[in-house]
Amino acid sequence: MLVSCLVCGKPTTTTHMGMDVCRACTVFYQRHRGARDRLQCFSECGDRPCIDRQKGVFACRKCRLDRFEAVMRAGEEPAHQSVDGSAGEAFGRMMQQLMWEIIPCTYRCMNEGTRILVAGLFDFASAVFPDFQKLPSDDKWLLIRNYQQIFHCIDGELRALQRFGQESFFTFGSYTTFLSGEFAEKYFIDCPDQSNLATAANTLRECIDENVPAVQKQIYQIDPSEEEFLAMIGLALWSVENVEPDDQLLAIASRNRNQILAELTAHYGRTISNEQGTARLGVVLCLLQEFRRVDLNLKSEYEIYRILNVFDDDTFMYRLQAHRAPEVS
Q1: Beta-carbon count within 10 A of 249 CB
Q2: H/E element holding 88?
């Protein structure tokens, strides 16, 4: 039976240590329970809260460990000791307070996360599009370099809206870390050169304020379906407006875009109507164009970070957008 982990809230089919807790949280507890003295609550390191329960953001390991032990203590209490006489309801109230652990993103997290993303995108494109498998290596890199940032924007903003809500102005820096203006200084804490950290943090904060609210508002209004989301990420892969493909790659890209649009149009014909589908398609393409705008803005941001030396020539994210094919390990 599928249940929710009482520590992180993620679904799990098995119990550990006699409780409804997932394997990841159990392993986390076993690894860190003897290191409590070395763990420090994030809120004790400054004026930032370590837990934002409304947004579901956790910034320190110590609170996750405390939460695990609180679940253990609650499980040991007899049912008649709960306020309303029901241990199950006590667990229910606890679950309303427990959120997934999502920590602030840093330069290193995002840089390494981008390596993983790029490797995954090569596998994704090869598995979904036979034409991609047949392309020469240089053309594959051309597409993925052009694709990885906009894919990250589409995926990250949709997940951020679902995870944090419309008014959060949070976005995902990597798959499990978040970015926000209030944590801009923390992002550069492990960058190559911190001499211009304050200027870089202000630049990042302005970028988030300029782009995240606008795109999240549009996503919220359009509310794309799963089929529309898949169509957008497929169209983005084969969008070659910002690169210089040869005639053969241009023809392949056009063929695949047309096929995706035809399949989405057919889906609209089955689920709504052709007339409504035409209008809906226009809305989805406008949303995709908004993601392209953000993608172009981020490319400009990366150049600024390079000038400020918080990025260097070995920064994987920068090398991608500078059209240098790095090694993916």
Answers
A1: 20
A2: helix 87-97
Handedness of CA 268, 272, 275, 278 (dihedral sign): negative
83-90 own/partner pairs: CB under 8 Å, 24+ apart: none
Per-residue model confidence as pLDDT tens digits over 148-206: 999 999 998 888 877 777 667 788 998 888 898 888 999 999 999 999 999 999 999 99
Cα maximum dimension of the chain: 75
Of 290, 300, 113, 292, give the one whose Cα is nearest residue 206. 300
- 3-class secondary-structure state, position 194: coil
210-236 pLDDT tens trace? 998 889 889 988 989 989 999 999 999
Gap between the Cα atoms of 197 and 84, Å rounded: 52
Weakest mean pLDDT among 33-47, 107-121, 172-186, 252-266: 33-47
Whole-model pTM above 0.85?
A: no
Q: Find the radius of gyration of the CA atoms of the chain.
A: 23
Cβ atoms of 151 and 232 closer than 8 Å? no
Beta strands in 96-215, from DSSP E residues, in sequence order: 103-104, 171-174, 177-179
Pairing label, strands 171-174, 103-104: unpaired
